[in-house]
Design brief:
Number of domains of chain A: 2
Helix content of chain B: 40-55%
Order of helices and strands of chain B: HHHHHHHHHHHHEEHEHEHEHEHE
InterPro entries (chain A): Alkaline_phosphatase_core_sf, DUF1501, TAT_signal, TAT_signal_bac_arc
CATH architecture of the largest domain in chain A: 3-Layer(aba) Sandwich
Structural class of chain A: alpha/beta
Number of helices of chain A: 15
Shape of chain B: elongated
Protein name (chain B): Cytochrome c domain-containing protein
Strand order of the largest sheet of chain B: 1-2-3-4-5-6-7
Organism (chain A): Algibacter mikhailovii
Distance between the termini of chain B: 77 Å
Largest sheet of chain B: 7 strands, mixed
Number of helices of chain B: 17
CATH topology of the largest domain in chain B: Leucine-rich repeat, LRR (right-handed beta-alpha superhelix)
Strand content of chain A: 15-25%
CATH class of the largest domain in chain A: Alpha Beta
Shape of chain A: globular
Organism (chain B): Algibacter mikhailovii
Structural class of chain B: mainly alpha
Oligomer: heterodimer
CATH topology of the largest domain in chain A: Alkaline Phosphatase, subunit A
Protein name (chain A): Sulfatase
Largest sheet of chain A: 9 strands, mixed
Number of strands of chain B: 7
Largest interface: A-B, 32 and 38 residues
Number of domains of chain B: 3
Chain lengths: 503, 462
């Protein structure tokens, strides 16, 4: 083919260093042959395609060793093998769900004391209100389990599993509005463009199942709210194959997996083989790692033709499992169904599954809004915990529940006996983790009587990230990627591992 | 001994540098004197008066700087006095030696050569003594002989103990840290900042700045405060160039001050001691096996060759190294790799895997037609801590093979054919913490009937 490119060498220093470390020609030859051989194998016999899990081609082995030696990972024995992160987008109200503040009842409607507010920045949405009336939660709280954790009546199912949960009640973020705050949680930075947590894990630890993406995102179809976008599961400056793959919330999580009508797929091997050659030539000439990423994606797409239908088929789940997750779970794309699907993906070796459930942004009509949100999520969440536990997977699976910030104790808009709204509050909110390596039935951090300031053990987003990576055997200060002249990490120059949370 | 002006102390700190000039000059003069006795080197004698004079001049400077340094008050008075007078004596004798050498003083003795040699010899002896006492001031009195072959290690010999509980917190845990990391500057002869860690009395007495030790309040105690400062802080201890304390060491000192109330005779058993501290303590004291149940240390194993890894991967296993370069692996045989059609393949696969059986820490063989006979093979994987063999047709008989396994702490056997008969097997595994037994015939009644004291937690599910 296009031989005139052969002598072209990259003039980019980073590329040159890659060129030096890898015998590219050898590598590429193996890649194209490897892909072809795999394609042939799987066309002849699907069983074989599955058995190729764990028998990475020689190419993969070279790459794997190269990456392994470069990163020196894991830095220590991991506790977690996989994670499912239940992102509650919008900012759930901590004092209506978990952060019980009984003293507020006596202060109903009074102006929130200046001493509590201090120098807090308020949003433009409520900052100009003439009063900031204290709005106690209208929901009842009870203590549950051996850990005697407080949970409101909104979450009867979660209340059943509190002894598995590790509550973080002193969460703090720097960001007061949705987009920067959710970016901050997902990537460690308020502006889009940095790699997401899942991408860092994929980059650092690689895949456990070569036939499925390492990082999969699921968005509930039964919720609306602040928009989500692909930068939240993006790879930033990391190699492109580490980006999260979004599954559609519906009957077909991935489109066009089946061969089109009247095409039996027998010559696909030829097509991919040739495409591989073309891409190899291109890569040989320019040394652009994006070409490798593209080749990896083609290969992944091809494997997903077999692997995805199997993993997304929930027809063989017994009735009692559906009952546990609630009736929504039979309706693909709902939060409950995504929880069930999440479990299945984790079982198959997907390392990072992230669910997004929008609609936690209760500026007005907080009580009704929360009732609705909890009805859709509570049972699925709790069922996931129980299901992982009975399968022994909670041992090495980390479960995270939380939003991008909390909500204010004062009412945004009018406060009545039965209704109030709550504005964004980044200074104190509640999240929980469960499973691999975190203390079950434990509570860390404490807020003041207004759930406004953290008075004990604050836990910043950077610390949360550092702790999360620690559970995966990663020292957050040592997982770096050089980009635009400096080394970046998820926690940038911040973050401490919170050892108190760990078993 | 009040604070001298900073500038004086600044100059004073050049003393340790400048003292080496007279040492060099005078020893050089001494060597020339000896050499000069040989005919061949007679000419070198001409340099002797100059060498002695330079030695004298630099001695004077060193004395002045030394006096300035002594004003800092960081040094033990007795030891300081000795060094001080020896220094002056050396300087004075050097002057005398020079005067004799240039014959300003003419000694009546006719044999001039002998006079010269004996004075310079005396100078060198004094010089050595002065240097020795100076060294003792800086490094502490036992610095020189600490590792000498004839030294009988004056260290208090601590009684041998066989468990952490018997250790006296101060003697066995805190003192060795102070000795190692602090005592080179804070001892009876050096007393930097007026502080000595020589014995309990001087520790309680403390140093010049702040309360060195407040029983029960480590964070306010100067000795803890200083080691917790930012290393760039000028008050950070130990000072630049010395090895800082590790977090474990700080934890132990904090534990001694807070939990043991800075008592010098409390034993670990009488003090509230967290698991973490116990772990650190048993590590310090060189005990093994005192760790929490379920927290097995990682074994040390040989690395596995790339070739061996490749053959095992070719059998379908996914191998991941659990700690970089440790040779410890997680091995996963993906579900359904073995079906009824190729059931016999498992024997071969396990056989291949068993070549690196000591390297496997986590082993996953879920839903892969595993039978009782394979468990016998698996029981040879001595270092496995997590064994996941759910959804296989295994029974109590097969599981019995694992009864003596010592490393296993998590066992997943859900959806297998085991019954309550296996509860005994679980209890006999000494390190076992968790058993997942959902979808077996084991039910809550069985668990209530059979409740061993120290058995693992059995998780049944809903």
């Amino acid at each position: 083919m296009c031989d005139h490119h052969d002598e072209l060498k990259s003039n980019n220093k980073d590329f040159q260093s890659i060129e030096k470390q890898l015998d590219r020609r050898h590598f590429l030859k193996k890649t194209s042959l490897g892909l072809g051989a795999l394609a042939l194998g799987s066309l002849l016999n699907t069983e074989k395609a599955w058995s190729s899990i764990g028998t990475p081609s020689h190419t993969d082995a070279i790459l794997e060793n190269y990456n392994k030696n470069r990163l020196g990972l894991p830095h220590h024995l991991p506790k977690a093998k996989r994670i499912i992160y239940l992102f509650q987008s919008g900012g759930p109200s901590q004092m209506d769900l978990f952060d019980y503040k009984p003293k507020l009842v006596d202060m109903f409607g009074q102006d929130l004391p200046k001493s509590v507010i201090g120098k807090t920045r308020l949003t433009g949405m409520s900052g100009s209100q003439s009063t900031l009336p204290v709005a106690p939660s209208i929901f009842n709280f009870k203590q549950y389990g051996e850990s005697r954790a407080w949970v409101s009546d909104l979450m009867p199912y979660t209340a059943e599993v509190v002894d598995e949960l590790c509550f973080m009640k002193g969460m703090q973020t720097d960001q007061i509005n949705h987009t920067p705050a959710i970016n901050f949680f997902q990537t460690g930075h308020q502006l889009p463009g940095r790699p997401s947590v899942g991408s860092w894990l994929s980059y650092g630890l690689g895949s456990d199942n070569e036939n499925l993406p390492t990082f999969i995102t699921l968005i509930s179809k039964n919720a609306k709210g602040q928009p989500l976008n692909a930068s939240l599961w993006g790879n930033g400056f990391l190699p492109t194959e580490h980006q999260g793959v979004q599954f559609r919330s519906g009957k077909d999580p991935v489109l066009y997996l089946n061969n089109p009508d009247n095409y039996d797929g027998t010559d696909r091997k030829k097509m991919l083989d040739y495409l591989g050659k073309l891409n190899s030539l291109q890569h040989d000439a320019y040394g652009d790692p994006e070409i490798q990423a593209r080749m990896a994606q083609y290969e992944m797409a091809y494997k997903m033709q077999t692997s995805v239908p199997e993993v997304t088929d929930i027809s063989d789940e017994p009735d009692h499992i559906f009952e546990m997750y609630g009736k929504d779970s039979r309706n693909p794309g709902t939060y409950a169904a995504n929880c069930l699907m999440g479990r299945k993906l984790l079982e198959k070796g997907v390392k990072f599954v992230q669910l997004f459930h929008q609609g936690w942004d209760q500026h007005i009509g907080c009580p009704d809004g929360l009732r609705n949100q909890c009805k859709k999520t509570d049972q699925g969440t709790a069922a996931l915990i129980k299901d992982l536990k009975q399968r022994g997977m909670l041992d090495d699976t980390l479960v995270v529940w939380g939003g991008e910030f909390g909500r204010t104790v004062y009412s945004q808009g009018q406060l009545t006996d039965t209704n109030y709204g709550r504005d964004h509050h980044p200074k104190a909110f509640t999240m929980w983790m469960a499973g691999a390596g975190v203390k079950p039935g434990f509570q860390y951090g404490e807020t003041d009587d207004f759930s406004y300031n953290v008075i004990k053990d604050p836990l910043h987003v950077h610390d949360f990230h550092a702790t999360l990576l620690h559970l995966f055997g990663i020292d957050h200060e040592r997982l770096t990627f050089k980009h635009q002249g400096r080394r970046y990490r998820l926690t940038d120059v911040h973050g401490h591992v919170v050892k108190d949370l760990l078993t | 001994m009040n604070e001298a002006p900073d500038f004086i102390l600044f100059l004073g700190r050049f003393h340790p540098l400048v003292v080496h000039l007279p040492i060099g000059f005078l020893i050089f003069a001494f060597l020339l004197e000896i050499l000069g006795r040989k005919k061949k080197f007679e000419a070198t004698k001409a340099a002797i008066p100059l060498a002695i004079f330079l030695g004298f001049a630099s001695s004077v400077v060193a004395c002045v700087l030394g006096y300035m340094l002594s004003l800092s008050g960081d040094y033990n008075n007795d030891a300081l006095d000795t060094h001080f007078w020896f220094g002056l004596a050396t300087t004075a004798l050097t002057l005398l030696a020079w005067l004799i050498r240039v014959e300003i003083i003419k000694l009546p003795n006719k044999n001039k050569v002998r006079v010269n040699i004996s004075t310079i010899t005396l100078v060198v002896i004094l010089l050595g003594a002065t240097g020795h006492y100076g060294g003792n001031l800086t490094h502490g009195g036992d610095y020189l002989t600490k590792y000498a072959p004839f030294n009988k290690k004056e260290k208090r010999v601590l009684a041998t103990i066989d468990k952490v509980d018997d250790a006296i917190v101060f003697d066995y845990l805190a003192q060795p840290i102070l000795e190692n990391k602090c005592a080179s500057c804070h001892n009876e002869s050096k007393k930097k900042g007026g502080l000595s860690f020589q014995d309990s009395i001087s520790i309680v007495k403390g140093g010049k700045s702040g309360a060195t030790l407040i029983a029960g309040n480590a964070l306010e105690s100067e000795m803890i405060k200083r080691v917790l400062l930012n290393p760039d802080h000028e008050d950070f201890m130990p000072p630049e160039g010395k090895t800082p304390l590790t977090t474990e060491e700080i934890d132990i000192l904090t534990y001694w001050i807070n939990q043991a109330d800075a008592n010098f005779s409390s034993k670990v058993s009488t003090v509230e001691t967290s698991e973490d501290i116990k772990q650190i303590a048993s590590k310090m004291l060189g005990f093994k096996g005192t760790h929490k149940k379920g927290q097995t240390d990682l074994p040390t194993v040989n690395k596995v060759s790339e070739e061996a890894l490749r053959t095992i991967k070719a059998e379908g296993f996914v191998l991941k190294e659990l700690v970089f370069d440790s040779g410890l692996y997680e091995a996963v045989l993906p579900e359904n790799s073995i079906t009824e059609n190729n059931a016999s393949a498992l024997d071969i696969k396990l056989e291949k895997l068993s070549k690196i059986k000591n390297n496997i820490i986590w082993l996953y063989l879920e839903n892969n037609q595993l039978k009782d006979k394979h468990l016998k093979q698996i029981s040879q994987f001595e270092n496995v801590q997590k064994l996941v063999i759910d959804r296989n047709n295994i029974t109590d008989t097969g599981l019995y093979a694992l009864r003596d396994h010592k490393s296993l702490n998590s066992l997943n056997v859900y959806n297998t054919s085991i019954t309550k008969a296996s509860l005994k097997t679980f209890s006999s595994m000494k390190n076992l913490q968790k058993v997942y037994a959902w979808h077996t015939t084991i039910n809550n009644n069985d668990l209530n009937e059979h409740k061993p004291e120290d058995g693992p937690e059995i998780i049944l599910g809903n």
